[in-house]
Amino acid sequence: MAIQQVQDDLLRKSYPLFEDNLVSEIEEQGEFKTFPANEVLMRKGQYIRSTMLVLSGLIKIYREDDEGNEFLMYYLRPGEACALSLVCAAKHEASPIMAKTVTETDVMMVPVDTMSEWMSKFKSWYQFVIETYRTRFDELLATLDNVAFRSMDERLEFYLKRAKEAQQTNLLNISHQEIANELNTSREVISRLLKKMEQKDMVKLNRNTIELKKF
Amino acid sequence: MAIQQVQDDLLRKSYPLFEDNLVSEIEEQGEFKTFPANEVLMRKGQYIRSTMLVLSGLIKIYREDDEGNEFLMYYLRPGEACALSLVCAAKHEASPIMAKTVTETDVMMVPVDTMSEWMSKFKSWYQFVIETYRTRFDELLATLDNVAFRSMDERLEFYLKRAKEAQQTNLLNISHQEIANELNTSREVISRLLKKMEQKDMVKLNRNTIELKKF
DNA sequence: ACCGAACGGTGATTCAAATCACATAGCAGT
DNA sequence: ACTGCTATGTGATTTGAATCACCGTTCGGT
């Protein structure tokens, strides 16, 4: 099958509500790219010239501060786009976030100027943009709730649930250090809490893997 | 002057980018309301049937959790609307937030169904919606940063700066207890930190008022 | 099979913030 | 002016989490 055909299938499957004309324009204007796992797609402070439409794989979006602290905001799955890239693209602002692939990921890069045209041209596009804002807003609120109201053990549970859902597996391949970074705490704290969860038979721990049992 | 004329003036002044036809429809479909200071406009869990367009005054938007904890998300000033009410209105979902007036406030209540029509009918309306999402997203990120990365003294400073800007005054009429609630901490902590700031000559404290000096 | 790096476990200590306990000050209503 | 309520000040104690110190384990590379 031609490469173009594969890309078209991916796009239509991930974004079933897009009109045919919109799909054609995306294919014309956009650039198809594949990134390996664990690749940083965007750093804080970079300028954004295009939005990524996720076609396959999984992306993590982080917030970073000036001292190198970071924490996980949310995941992006196929059919989703980052609200922030829509924001920044529109304002030609520097990115306030960092994006990183979890698994190998296919995306379609769409240039900014094109996007704003589509807003008036394609109903399905602005519905998509609105829906993107909506779901990202909800996700961000959930993250905020946890940071503001919950103690570290509750936040860890929430983190693991979210990871399970995003990655569709009970077997997470991740180190304690990485979890600590994503919750903006220290490795020791996570190790201790995970150990307690193991004693309650909620998880099973092995080097670089966490098996989720009661989730 | 007729009441309708006053309302029309307020609306046009606060939302100068709205098309004439849109202003007419808002006046036809919407309901003009005035709330006194310190009135709760919306509680968590309520269902949202309309969005508020702020015409004058000032509103605070809080996040609440199930145990009665709360914290301030951001302010809404004239010309602004709450992104969340747009979200929930669209999804017919319960409100995840609480809204409260700071000063006497005039708003225009717009029913949900009408709003979605406007999305395709009035370019200035969907531009407004997009812009609302954008700015609320930015505000929410700033709030999140503070909770996630900053210590309580830094968060307090940020809080005071934001309050000054929203209320356009150096003389805040607010108790330590109220600040504590809005930062989800305890009154003693705020009293102590404010005392330290007074010693540094950053503020001047009096019963129910805080005078901001170096801000 | 050995080495070095990354990973994970765990006690001891420090620290910021929450909580407890109580005192004092200022304002509002009678 | 008295009363009572709300707001504020401040020490003492507790607590959850961060940090420090150090250990053994596992894995990948040669």
TrEMBL record, chains A, B:
Among the GO molecular function terms of this UniProt record, one is: DNA binding
**Which UniProt keywords are given for this protein, alphabetically ordered?**
DNA-binding, Transcription, Transcription regulation
All copies of the Cyclic nucleotide-binding domain together span 14-80
Listed Pfam families:
cNMP_binding, HTH_Crp_2
**UniProt GO BP:** regulation of DNA-templated transcription
Q: Where is the HTH crp-type domain?
A: 150-215
Matching entries from InterPro entries are given as:
cNMP-bd_dom, cNMP-bd_dom_sf, HTH_CRP, RmlC-like_jellyroll, WH-like_DNA-bd_sf, WH_DNA-bd_sf
Q: Which domain of life is it from?
A: Bacteria
Q: What is this protein called?
A: CRP/FNR family transcriptional regulator
